[in-house]
Amino acid sequence: MAGADEGAGSPATFAPLRNPTFRSIWLATQVSSLGWLMQTVAISWLMATISTSDLMVALVQASSNLPAFILSVFAGALADNYSRRGVMFAGRCLMVIASVALAAFVALGFVSPWMILGFSFLIACGGALHDPAWQASVGDIVDRRDVPAAVTLLSVGFNTVRTVGPALGGIVVASFGLLAAFTVTTLTYLVPLGTVWRCKWKVRSSPLPRESMKTAIYDGLRFTAMSSEIKAAIARGTIFGLASIAILALLPLAVRDHLGGGPLAYGTLMAGFGTGAVFAGLANGTFRRSLSQERLMRLACVACAACSLSLALTSSIAVAALALALGGAGWVTAWSGVGVSVQLASPRWVVGRTISIYYALIDGGIAAGSWVWGTVSQNHSLTWALEGSAGALLLVAAAGVLFPLRERRESEPDPLEEFDAPAVALNLKPRSGPIVVKVEYLIHEENVEAFLDLMRERRHVQTRVGARQWTLQRNLQKPVQWIETFRTPTWTDYLRLNHRLTEADKELDERVLQIHKGELPPQMTLLIERPTSLARKPEQSAPYFPHR
User: Fold this and answer.
1) Closest CA to 354 of 66, 77, 60, 36
2) CB 517 within 8 A of CB 527
3) Fold of the domain spanning 435-528
4) Which residues pair with 442 in a beta bridge?
5) Distances (CA, A) of 68 to 211, 223, 231, 236, 246
6) In this structure, what are the phi and psi dihedrals at residue 347, rounded to the nearest 5 degrees?
């Protein structure tokens, strides 16, 4: 991973841009992001002008993030089981359709707070379908050594656009009106739609049948739950999003009430936020060389807390712009760190799902935070809400004691996919099952403790890739004999489990083999369960026992 660790000014930082497919989609995404930021300014300012409710203004941010919470896990399963390019294209289509409809309603004068939230929600639904597939495709398009740089470029690209997008949106709204802003946004959404249609890239195919959506979602949730690195990243990202979103969700109110500005001032302050984010993103490699990821996360929380507190206390646009630059630096540092952690800890077979779960929870936190701080602002005061956000961010920094971010692993998490199915005497079909696997070990007494330690690791490994009901038994009449047992729902699931094992998992098998004392290697027995209930209907058994 040396290439990813180079400083921000080194060629490695921009190495992914040498890949023409990544470069084309990345550039098209920046155009779309520019339009989205303009649209966000227009929607936020429109809501602030037609609604007197602070909560409704804050809910604009919630409507933009809630779809990711609702749809991301489903979208991740789609990305891992179907064409990621196709899922990206479908998401972009939905964004274009919803944006066209919003522009049409504004042109016709049919504007209401709930209508605004509804179309904002639909546009975000398209993004919720697109984003997990795009993030998962990064590892398909670029070399693994360039993944950290690519993930950072995604954040840097968006925040570079953030430096000009909101200001441009404010200028367009102030000079040409809301309809012009919504029309330009729709045109920018067409750019990545055409790029995804034109670009194609190779994806490693699996020799096994596609998983059902239910099984795919279950496998993704199980893998995420069993990865301490991913869980720590998601936990910190979720609570960071909940605490820090007050800066962006309440900024229109701060401009209107504390600073006495208009849409141009709002866009300028958003540009200040983006400027800080860009500089932090470009320096990300240097930061990561000199500081641990956990320390970077704490510094990011402190920076955002200082930003929120400054917005609560200042009446100067210049001071607010400097505070927002600091907040933007903390924002991109935090999200780059947790995003890279999730990417590098996820094998290709499940990366779409882990990223989608990550997005679901952090966007759920952001949506909840928008509602919480909007409610506090409406029921108490804007100052209270921003000060409360600052205090919460300091608590997020302290949460590292419970959920410390792990340093990224050097080991390769992708499966070897080198597995020859064992010969069986029955004519099994893909859905035949349930399959029971029993492995017999012979372990002398002096090696029992070492064996149990290894089997705890093995249980974690096997369960993470699909084993169910894993148990370890010891023969009471022949204590030297130990039997490992687990199940898979079908024969295909058994094959899929073995295709998911990594080189590190195979090394664990070698370590177990070293303390096995039999003349032959551990003996594996494959069985298939056969229900004996008289109430079982014949047609129910056919898909599971086609060899009968």
Assistant:
1) 77
2) no
3) Alpha-Beta Plaits (3.30.70)
4) 481
5) 22, 20, 18, 17, 18
6) -65, 160
Task: Pull the structure tokens for residue 143.
Answer: 């070399």
Could you give the strand order of the β-sheet that contains 523-528, starting from the edge strand earlier in sequence? 468-474, 481-488, 435-442, 523-528
Q: For 266-280, 303-317, 386-400, which range has the lowest pLDDT when averaged over its residues?
A: 266-280
How close are the terminal C-alpha atoms of the chain, in Å? 52
Q: Return the amino acid letter for 317.
A: I
Portions of the chain given CATH number 1.20.1250.20: 15-199+213-402
CA distance 395 to 301: 9
> Of 393, 403, 160, 406, which is closest to residue 299 (Cα–Cα)?
393
Residues near 383 by beta carbon (within 8 Å), at least 6 away in sequence: 312, 313
Select the more confidently predicted residue: 15 or 13: 15
Q: Which among 412, 411, 404 has a CA at the least distance from the CA of 292?
A: 404
Are 483 and 428 within 8 A, CB to CB? no
Give 377-429 pLDDT, tens digit per residue: 888 888 899 999 999 999 999 888 887 877 655 445 666 566 677 888 888 88
CA distance 309 to 390: 6
Angle between helices 213-225 and 54-81 in degrees, nearest 10: 110
For residue 434, whether the previous peptide bond is cis, meaning omega lies within 30 degrees of 0, is yes
253-to-119, 162, 192 alpha-carbon distances in Å = 22, 19, 32
Count of residues in the chain: 548
Specify the pLDDT at position 540. 42
Tokens 């049409």 belong to which residue?
104
What is the structure's pLDDT at 391?
92
Residue with tokens 């990865």: 227
Q: Which CATH class is domain 15-199+213-402?
A: mainly alpha
As beta bridge partners, residue 437 has: 486, 526
- Shortest CA distance to 272 belongs to which of 333, 228, 217, 322? 322
492, 430 Cβ separation under 8 angstroms: yes
Could you tell me which of 537, 465, 472 has the C-alpha nearest to residue 499?
A: 465
Chain centroid to Cα 396, Å, comes to 19
Per-state percent for the chain, helix, strand, coil, to nearest 5: 70, 5, 25
CB-based burial label for 154 (10 Å; 0-12, 13-18, 19+): buried
What stretch(es) of the chain map to CATH 3.30.70.100?
435-528
β-pairing, 435-442 with 468-474? unpaired
Place of tokens 């602030």: 48
Measured in whole angstroms, the distance separating CA 548 from the mean position of its chain's CA atoms is 44
Transcribe 70-87 into DSSP letters: HHHHHHHHHHHHS-HHHH
Q: How far apart are CA 67 and CA 71, in angstroms?
A: 6
Beta-sheet strands, E only, within 33-99:
none
Query: Quick one: tokens of 75?
Result: 């979208």
Please state whether 194 falls in left (phi above 0), alpha (psi between -120 and 50) or beta: alpha
> What is the overall mean pLDDT for the chain?
82
The DSSP symbol for 152 reads H
Q: How far apart are CA 358 and CA 341, in angstroms?
A: 11
Beta strand 481-488 pairing with 468-474: antiparallel
